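To illustrate the input format used throughout this study, we show a single complete record. The first block contains the structure-token representation of the backbone; no residue identities are included at this stage. The design step must infer an amino acid for every position from geometry alone.
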């Protein structure tokens, strides 16, 4: 099926409408309603609402038995104020679709329209509009939902646009695709004292000063191989903004990142042991909490081969690439299905993901739609 210009014009308008109303992770109620309203004309055979939060699943069934193929997009936006000049920029202060999830949703909305015109010959297609990707909680919540087993896919596919790659070029490789990552919050509690009598305090100052380089040394980056480890200090706080008080409390926030889940387990243990030893030596109480927990994402060889063939058949140039340091919540679906994600180039000089002037290139809607439709037809007819 060819891509009609009227269809693409409609999808571009829909993408820009979504861009104006960004909602953060866990708060995507309006976005889900807008998606459902736009795709209603495709007459899905089943609609599952409020899946794992505000998730939305549209199911299209073939006339013969066959595998279930899931295509996933994300609903959420970011807590970043948009500064770009586009007419359709965010109408919500301090929030913006600055990762391209609006474009990913538009591509899946186009798939819904195509599937409304022509169901698969066999099996089922699940169009999954997933909530809460940005904080790493959405996929786990969807999988834990009691209704998910009824639509559990055999194959799962997704894309992410990627500035820095040539516009419209694709990268897909088997094996590691995205790093695992987790946020580690260390809260130290001691005792304050007068600034003239620091010896009477139990202060976290020197503990924090030692921990920053020590934690950073646990993961310094390097080549994206099985040994890759990176620790990034993201936030520090200590005491009150006053000159007369020796601080009695402080926090260190760090993001831990590894290419594999096993590597992440070892890195978490090492970071925790380091923090515990420092707190004990200083006589501080330590509280540890973990946040934004992303599993490593790996592309299944069979699913990767199918998606690569579909990309090439759809006319997209496929070029070599390497895993992303950034994390992706899609990785959790790899435990439930043969899954693969590809990167779709947004342009070599395009503003970076999460930059305040980023905007999804509308020219990627047609190729993304073509690639996904092709893999669906190749698998299900």
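Output of the design step:
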């Amino acid at each position: 099926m060819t891509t009609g210009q009227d269809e693409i014009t409609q999808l571009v308008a829909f993408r820009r409408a979504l861009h104006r109303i960004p909602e953060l992770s866990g708060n995507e109620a309006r976005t889900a309603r807008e998606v459902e309203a736009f795709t209603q004309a495709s007459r899905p055979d089943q609609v599952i609402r409020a899946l794992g939060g505000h998730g939305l699943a549209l199911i299209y069934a073939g006339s013969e038995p066959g595998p279930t193929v899931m295509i996933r997009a994300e609903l959420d936006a970011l807590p970043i104020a948009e500064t770009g000049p586009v007419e359709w920029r965010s109408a919500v202060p301090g929030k913006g679709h600055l990762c391209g999830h609006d474009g990913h949703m538009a591509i899946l909305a186009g798939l819904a329209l195509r599937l409304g015109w022509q169901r698969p010959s066999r099996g089922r297609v699940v169009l999954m509009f997933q909530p809460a990707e940005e904080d790493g909680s959405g996929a786990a919540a969807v999988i834990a939902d009691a209704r998910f087993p009824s639509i559990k896919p055999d194959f799962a596919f997704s894309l992410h646009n990627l500035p820095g790659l040539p516009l419209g070029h694709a990268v897909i490789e088997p094996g590691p695709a995205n790093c695992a990552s987790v946020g580690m919050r260390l809260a130290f509690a001691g005792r304050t004292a007068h600034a003239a009598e620091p010896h009477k305090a139990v202060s976290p100052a020197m503990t924090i000063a030692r921990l920053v380089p020590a934690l950073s040394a646990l993961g310094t980056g390097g080549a994206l191989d099985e040994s890759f480890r990176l620790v990034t200090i993201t936030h520090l706080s200590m005491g009150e903004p006053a000159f007369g008080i020796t601080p009695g409390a402080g926090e260190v926030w760090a993001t831990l990142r590894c290419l594999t889940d096993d590597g992440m387990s070892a890195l978490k243990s090492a970071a925790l042991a380091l923090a515990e030893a420092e707190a004990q030596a200083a006589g501080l109480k330590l509280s540890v909490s973990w946040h934004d927990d992303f599993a490593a994402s790996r592309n299944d060889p069979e699913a990767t081969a199918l998606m690569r063939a579909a990309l090439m058949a759809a006319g997209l140039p496929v070029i070599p690439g390497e895993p992303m340091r950034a994390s992706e919540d899609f990785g959790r679906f790899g435990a439930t299905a043969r899954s693969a994600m590809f990167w779709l180039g947004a342009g070599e000089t395009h503003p970076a993901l999460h930059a305040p002037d980023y905007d999804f290139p509308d020219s990627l809607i047609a190729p993304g739609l073509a690639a996904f439709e092709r893999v669906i037809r190749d698998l299900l007819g």
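Structural context for interpreting the output: DSSP finds eight helices and 16 strands in the chain. The first helix runs from residue 5 to 20.
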